[in-house]
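We emphasize that the prediction below concerns an isolated chain of 324 residues; any contacts that depend on oligomerization or on bound cofactors are therefore not represented. The input was used exactly as deposited, without trimming of termini.
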Amino acid sequence: MTGGGDAPGLNGIIEAAAKTIIGAGFELIGVHDGIEDIEGVHAHAGTFLGTSNKSRIDGREDEFRRKFRELGLGGLVVAGGDGTFSALSKLGSDTIPVIGVPKTIDNDLQGTEITFGYDTACSVVSESVDRLRATADAHSRVMVVETMGRTAGWIALGGGLASYAEVILLPERPYDPEALRSFLLEKKKKQRGLMVVVSEAAHAKDDKATIAFRVEKSYQAERFGGIGQKVARWIEEATEWEARHVVLGHLQRSSPPTTTDRFLTQSMGVHVGKMVASGKWGYATVYRAGRIKHVPLNEVIGPPRVIEAQHPWVRRAQALGIFV
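Result of the prediction step, given as a token string:
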């Protein structure tokens, strides 16, 4: 089953794990709608099984256990995020054996160095910045690109670095408006257009993240948004440099997985199949130090993994003269 927001590569996990599990002689049931035809689904965005980031197990634990028993299942392979694993952990591993596959485009899960879907999301950001730079230069404008990421700025940092954006604003690093103004004014003397990549929960010092709306009953009810427009309007007022904003939104989720994400999900899916065959329940498959391995499931449950102040990517951006 899959839970939480969709991510490029989910179908790759399904196809690779299913082929390996079926090849090991097991019967496999997909929740929801069945997975009889898995050939080629790895190349598609979304999730073949469907997902929800609004459903909750709280108060329905007994129902979940009863349905699990009625299906006659021996275990559950779950691709999900912290909310999914936290909820399933309450059911008891002795009642419902689980193998987890950490999943989020935000790349902010504990226990793994990278999550599938992240590379695809960064590619969408970098390609968008590359395209928008042409219109920024043509019209002597600042183009502000707002990315997803919630309270972690990994997508903005990765996509902004890959596209050499001049400014990258992150939730972990509240920016100084006066320092940013001075930076932009210096750039304005030398170039016509400029690119800003801003993570959706980024904010200035002495300010807080902008919440666009709330989704009640969701694991993460607050939906961030609006910082792109806010920064664009501020730039015009502070620098008299015309600015426009673009919100990439779900385009970061809905693109077909990159080759990197395909290799990652293929490797993870096969590893999951081998874990099923050897009875490695209660573990999650993760990426660490260039290898796919499995760790206790509780190691991928916890608060978001955010960008450290002196992370190598931050230092690289600074070396390139990027405002971050």
